[in-house]
Design a protein that fits this description.
The structure holds two protein chains of two kinds. Chain A is α/β, with parallel strands linked by helices. Chain A is about 35% helix and about 20% strand. Chain A has five helices and eight strands, in the order βαββαβαβαβββα. Chain A has a six-stranded parallel sheet, with helices on both faces.
């Protein structure tokens, strides 16, 4: 399948590329060029809020993987950083999905976060049936607003959207000597989840 | 001493009509990016600028946000969504404990075919006006919960003057709230000490005979009672066509 991956230069994006590379034709989109050189894939450098970039990136694509990952080098100023993340999650996600459905893309996978349940007490067992209670902390809020935006596209158009609520992304080898955090999710496992969602979405009955 | 109330979007399609019902009771600070239609003094504040909102909100007891951009792909997000985030962030940082937010009925347009609609799940669709205001409400809700900011969100389906003329072909829409009723609702919102979960949204209508949208929640929590009777709406004489 032809798969577009946003946030492709992020650590998560890179792991997803590695997971899907052998079975799919990938197109990668990010504002920043990654350290890794991708010989076999088309890389488009640009912002989600640039309509011409998004239009170019979504042509002839079957599945859109919107990682929702923040830019690798966000502004130093905290306020500017928060404004950028909010803008990318809302206007950026909306513009991306709108262009994608106009281009005929019917399958979407979004990278959300389990942090949107952070307000629940630690001893509460959270399932997918629980209502998210995000705090205003921008990394939670941005993912939550992005998820809500995705949901409206799923309701409005004949498309499927899978939102993966990821734990705190780490590499196992980087945190081996730290105290265990039950929210940890290894980046490679997260990438497998995206691959699983991609496979699941191949069902015509979804 | 009168409460100090900051009004954002004071020159727009709603706020100018509320001044007669608010000005006698509150020390109002009117802000907008365009002149006031009645030439009231306006402080130039662009809600898309966090610093401008922060500066003008200092010393205020409450913020009322009437700003809106409906259909522009970029400005609707900047004004409606980012603007709401600025308002709530400023309120949290300055310790302002009351915010009145506003939005359209289209935040739950999946229920347009239903009746007796009170507090249904939000489903704005993807049109700019609805989704940007919906996301704004979720921002308000999160800040209200985290910082104990008592936030009242009014949901409108139409606003206008009390109908006094003869009924015409293009008549007064039945889901409208008249200005006098909205003035009352604003005063109730500014005076209520707290609302459940620190955030509640309310249908705002003057007429209920249609059974479509209910103001029962506003009645129960705010003590709101529309002044216009449904029967009076039909008793007006019909214009000669």
């Amino acid at each position: 399948m032809n798969v577009l991956i946003t946030g492709a230069a992020s650590p998560l994006g890179q792991k997803i590329v590695a997971e899907l590379a052998s079975n799919h034709q990938l197109r990668l989109l990010d504002n920043t060029i990654p350290d890794i050189k991708y010989e076999n894939f088309e890389f488009i450098q640009g912002s989600l809020v640039d309509p011409s970039i998004v239009s170019e990136a979504t042509q002839n694509i079957d599945v859109l993987i919107h990682t929702g990952e923040p830019p690798p080098n966000p502004p130093q100023d905290p306020l500017e950083c928060e404004q950028l993340l909010l803008d990318l999650a809302t206007r950026g996600t909306h513009g991306l999905f709108k262009t994608a459905v106009d281009m005929g893309i019917k399958r979407f996978i979004y990278g959300s976060t389990l942090e949107i349940f952070a307000s629940y007490p630690d001893d509460t067992y959270i399932s997918e049936f629980y209502k998210p209670l995000p705090t205003p902390e921008i990394y939670q809020m941005a993912r939550y607003l992005g998820e809500l935006t995705c949901r409206e596209f799923a309701r409005t158009y004949m498309v499927t959207v899978t939102s993966l609520r990821l734990g705190r992304l780490v590499l196992e080898e980087d945190v081996a000597d730290r105290d265990l955090d039950l929210m940890w999710l290894d980046l490679r496992d997260a990438a497998q989840a995206f691959a699983g969602a991609l496979k699941r979405d191949q069902s015509s009955s979804v | 001493m009168k409460k100090k109330v900051l009004i954002l979007g004071a020159s727009g399609n709603i706020a100018p009509y509320l001044l007669p019902g608010l000005d006698p009771y509150y020390d109002l600070c009117l802000t907008d990016i365009v002149p006031h239609p009645d030439e009231k003094p306006i402080i130039n504040v662009d809600i898309t600028s966090y610093q401008q909102v922060y500066n003008v909100a200092q010393g205020m007891d409450a913020i009322m946000n009437f700003t809106v951009v409906r259909d522009d792909p970029d400005q609707s997000f900047h004004v409606n969504t980012l603007g709401a985030w600025h308002v709530m962030k400023v309120a949290s940082e300055l310790g302002i404990k009351k915010v009145v937010h506003t939005g359209p009925q289209s935040i739950r347009n999946a229920y347009d075919q239903d009746f007796d609609i009170v507090d249904v799940p939000r489903s704005p669709g993807v049109e700019y006006y609805g989704i940007t205001k919906f996301l704004a409400m979720e921002i308000c809700r999160a800040y209200a919960r985290e910082y104990d900011i008592q936030t009242i969100s009014f949901v409108f389906n139409g606003l206008g003057s009390r109908p006094t003329d003869k009924i015409t072909e293009q008549d007064f829409p039945p889901f409208t709230i008249i200005w006098e009723d909205l003035q009352l609702a604003c005063r109730l919102a500014l005076e209520i000490e707290s609302v459940p979960e620190n955030f509640q949204d309310f249908n705002m209508l003057s007429y209920e005979g249609h059974g479509k949208y209910s103001v029962e929640k506003a009645r129960q929590i705010l003590g709101f009672e529309p002044t216009e009777k449904w029967e009076n709406y039909f008793k007006r004489p019909i214009d000669d066509l």
